[in-house]
Design goal:
heterodimer; A: mainly alpha; 6 helices; B: about 70 residues; mainly alpha; 434 Repressor (Amino-terminal Domain); 5 helices
């Protein structure tokens, strides 16, 4: 039996396909209890789609992590070491991803006629962002210099991507060529670009394949 | 940057996990250094050299030469 594990990018792509398929189904058929979803605007639909993708990605990752730590699991010794040393940072980062995904989902269904009132959404989002920030700080001391370096590189890459993509969009909007980004578009863009930057940084180092 | 980390580690009979434990870093970092995907920081390079009892330039190969005056 082979020990091949698909790279994280494969999980992410699968999450994208499944996430957007679910949203498309909901919007097309307007399942019971989700009628408000069919009335979502473009910004909210994209935010909801990305949020769903991140939630799915986090759930798949958490399931994989649980399987690796299950009592019956017997990975090779080297892999067991890796699971132990990276288990907690990975758990924290998956919870952060889930929190960010849920934040986008909640914010996408707020508004006139939406499923959530702005006050409830604000409190929920503050709690989620607090968890994400707390876990991010808690993860830092658990990392050694390689992931710390990659984290800094991700921050740098994300900054330049925001400048180019976000900046480019508002320049075009200011000149009247396109509509200006809505507040939710900015949040979706920040989230998407941060993940894109992290995949670029990890991929450039050839570290996308789990070892 | 090219390095001889894998050669000197194997000469000691250590696994990547064992070397990582002795250096206080993750096995992923050792693997990334050995496969030339990551150049370690100066403090880590010095610790590696000290652990193997060799000089840093014996562990990390730099082909750069200063310009002749």
């Amino acid at each position: 039996m082979t020990n091949y594990k698909p790279p994280a990018i494969v999980h992410f792509m699968m999450s994208i396909v499944v996430g957007f398929a679910i949203i498309a189904l909901i919007k097309t058929f307007g399942f019971t209890g989700t009628r408000t979803l069919s009335a979502l605007g473009v910004s909210a639909t994209i935010a909801l789609g990305l949020g769903a993708v991140l939630l799915l990605f986090a759930i798949m990752g958490l399931l994989g992590l649980a399987a690796a730590h299950a009592p019956g699991a017997a990975p090779p010794p080297e892999e067991m070491d890796a699971n132990l040393e990276r288990g907690r940072p990975r758990l924290y980062s998956l919870i952060v991803i889930a929190a960010m995904g849920l934040t986008l989902v909640l914010l996408s269904v707020v508004g006139p006629g939406g499923a959530l009132s702005p006050t409830i959404a604000l409190v929920s989002v503050l709690v989620l962002l607090g968890i994400a920030a707390g876990l991010t700080f808690a993860t830092w001391p658990l990392l050694d210099e390689l992931p710390r370096t990659m984290s800094r590189e991700t921050g740098n890459a994300a900054f330049y991507l925001i400048v180019v993509i976000g900046g480019g969009w508002v320049i075009l909007a200011h000149l009247g060529f396109v509509l200006a980004p809505a507040p939710l578009d900015w949040l979706t863009m920040f989230t998407l670009i941060m993940f894109a930057a992290s995949f670029i940084v990890v991929g450039r180092r050839g570290l996308l394949q789990s070892r | 940057m090219e390095n001889r980390l894998k050669i000197v580690r194997e000469a000691k009979g250590w696994s990547q996990g064992e070397l990582a434990r002795r250096l206080g870093v993750s096995r992923q970092t050792i693997n990334a250094v050995e496969t030339d995907k990551y150049d370690p920081s100066l403090p880590l390079a010095l610790r590696m050299a000290k652990l193997f009892g060799i000089a840093v330039p014996e562990l990390f190969i730099d082909t750069w030469e200063p310009e002749k005056e």
